[in-house]
């Protein structure tokens, strides 16, 4: 084996070690996996099931959970904690009521290695099929019934 071949072989070994280190780093990032709610439009009552998974082996610290609402990131952690069960494996809450519309939540949590990880959750709430119509529809209907709607 000549010197050039040995240098090429050494370069390939270093490259393999680097690629494996990068893959290990990517695979060891903590994950927040949303089981429920789905991204599809759903009625106003929903269940929340979110799993935490950390391939690096460090434990999730549930006391570090922060939940923010909307584009202005309003901290709603205390309100959420009244209805949810949170542990190192995830979050669970049943029969949560949200008004119709689109809602954005951001979850942040740390592990014992002080890694912060976060996930944005988008929820689209639709009105219940048997819900009464919204106020503007009632006004239009009453105007039409009263004969005030001139076409």
Report on the biggest sheet: 4 strands, antiparallel
> How many helix segments?
3
Task: Using the coordinates above, name the CATH class.
Answer: Mainly Beta
**What count of structural domains?**
1
Strand arrangement, major sheet: 1-2-6-5
- Output mean pLDDT: 75
Order of helices and strands: HEEEEHEEEEH
Gap from first CA to last CA: 94 Å
Give me the CATH fold name: Immunoglobulin-like
Number of strands: 8
| Residue runs with pLDDT of under 50 for 5 or more positions | 19-26, 134-151
**Could you say which overall geometry the principal axes of the C-alpha atoms support?**
elongated
For the record, the CATH architecture stands as Sandwich
What is the C-alpha radius of gyration, as a whole number of Å? 25 Å
Helical percent range? 25-40%
Beta-strand residue percentage:
35-45%
- Structural class assignment: alpha+beta
Kindly describe this structure.
- Residues 19-26 and 134-151 have low confidence and may be disordered.
- With 151 residues, the chain is α+β, with helices and mostly antiparallel strands.
- Helices cover 27% and strands 39% of the residues.
- The chain has helices at 3-27, 77-81, 135-145; strands spanning 31-36, 45-53, 60-69, 74-75, 85-87, 90-97, 101-111, 116-125.
- A 4-stranded antiparallel sheet has the order 1-2-6-5, with no helix packed on it. Strands 4-3-7-8 form a 4-stranded antiparallel sheet.
- It starts with a helix and ends in a 6-residue tail after the last helix.
- It is built from 3 helices and 8 strands, in the order αββββαββββα.
- It is elongated.
- Strand 3 and strand 4 (74-75) form a beta hairpin.
- The chain has a single domain, classed as Immunoglobulin-like (Sandwich), CATH 2.60.40.1220.
């Amino acid at each position: 084996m000549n010197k050039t071949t040995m240098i090429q072989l050494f370069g390939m070994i270093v490259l393999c070690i680097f690629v494996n280190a990068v893959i290990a780093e990517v695979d060891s990032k903590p994950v927040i996996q949303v089981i429920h709610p789905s991204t599809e439009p759903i009625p106003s009552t929903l269940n929340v099931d979110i799993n935490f998974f950390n391939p690096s082996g460090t434990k999730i610290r549930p006391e570090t959970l922060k939940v923010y609402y909307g584009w202005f990131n309003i901290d709603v952690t205390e309100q959420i904690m009244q209805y949810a069960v949170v542990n190192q494996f995830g979050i669970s809450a049943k029969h949560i009521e949200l008004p119709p519309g689109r809602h954005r939540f951001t979850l942040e949590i740390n592990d014992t290695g002080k890694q912060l990880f976060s996930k944005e959750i988008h929820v689209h709430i639709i009105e219940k099929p048997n819900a009464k119509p919204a106020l503007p529809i009632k006004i239009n209907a009453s105007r039409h019934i009263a004969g005030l709607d001139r076409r």
